[in-house]
Amino acid sequence: MKSQLNKKIIERFSRQIVLKDIGILGQKKILSSKVLIIGAGGLGSPAAEFLSRAGIGTLGIIDDDKVSLSNLHRQSLYSSSDIGKFKVKIAKKKIKKINPNTKVMIYKIRLNSKNFKKILNDYDYIVDGSDNFTTKFLLNDFCLRFKKILITGAISKFDGHVFTFNFKNKKIPCLRCFFQESEISDNLLNCESEGILGTVAGIVGTIQANEVLKKILNIGTGLDGYILILDLLNLNFRKVKLKKRKNCFCK
């Protein structure tokens, strides 16, 4: 998407542009940014929607899954008529209706170590909306290697976690400093077995989008080196500082 602001674009984003922390220059940064979202589900749906509404120039979406009936209570881009269709195709169609100026690139693949490098290099910011730790560790390792900014989200039951890893800064810890791969199970993020309140997905995914925009604009206080823990059943929010693990490969 071109970063030139014509009259129509200025009107579309006028409520953002009027903010003193954004303005014309900030909106141009948003328009020229490239964001990749992994997972077009409960987290990826709201993240993609609000990033496109904010004016992100290029939005990439990776997912190889189809819409199912059980997705609809928490995955806000889809409706009953979308059941059985590939998520990325429906997501692209919905996002183009929201903001036809956003360039949407879709990848109907399951992410792995062989296909990710080529895709990753085309984007500045990575949003992790995946639902398994195998993918989360893969994203962590690649983003660390190629010095990308990674916004990771995780949800289960009534709880959410949000991490921001700016791997351009060598001093910050990585995901492996917090989660020990040998001590966790993907069942922790399994909505089928653990359950999830739909609004939790929407809130966490929207926070991820918010963190991306703050990074693009270089404003506010971020989560670099911290984890935001949300207990939405009791409405408790905590920000906990992460420390580098001595034997972690991000040292």
Task: Explain how this protein is built.
By secondary structure, the chain is of the alpha/beta class. It folds into 2 domains: 1-28, no CATH class; 33-241, Rossmann fold (3-Layer(aba) Sandwich). The chain has 10 helices and 8 strands. It has helices at 7-12, 14-17, 23-31, 44-54, 87-98, 116-120, 133-145, 175-178, 191-194, 198-217, and strands at residues 34-38, 58-62, 103-107, 125-128, 149-156, 159-166, 226-231, 236-241. An 8-stranded mixed beta sheet has the order 3-2-1-4-5-6-7-8, with helices on both faces. Helix 4 links the parallel strand 1 and strand 2 (58-62). Helix 4 crosses helix 10 (198-217). It starts with 6 loop residues before the first helix and ends in a 10-residue tail after the last strand.
Total domain count: 2
Task: Calculate Rg over CA atoms.
Answer: 17 Å
Q: What name does the CATH topology of the largest domain carry?
A: Rossmann fold
Total helix count?
10
- Biggest β-sheet description: 8 strands, mixed
Overall outline:
globular
Strand order of the largest sheet: 3-2-1-4-5-6-7-8
> How would you spell out the order of helices and strands?
HHHEHEHEHEHEEHHHEE
- Supply the CATH architecture of the largest domain: 3-Layer(aba) Sandwich
CATH superfamily of the largest domain: NAD(P)-binding Rossmann-like Domain
Provide the CATH top-level class of the largest domain: Alpha Beta
Beginning-to-end CA distance, first to last residue: 37 Å
User: Average pLDDT, to the nearest integer?
Assistant: 92
Count of beta strands: 8
Structural class: alpha/beta
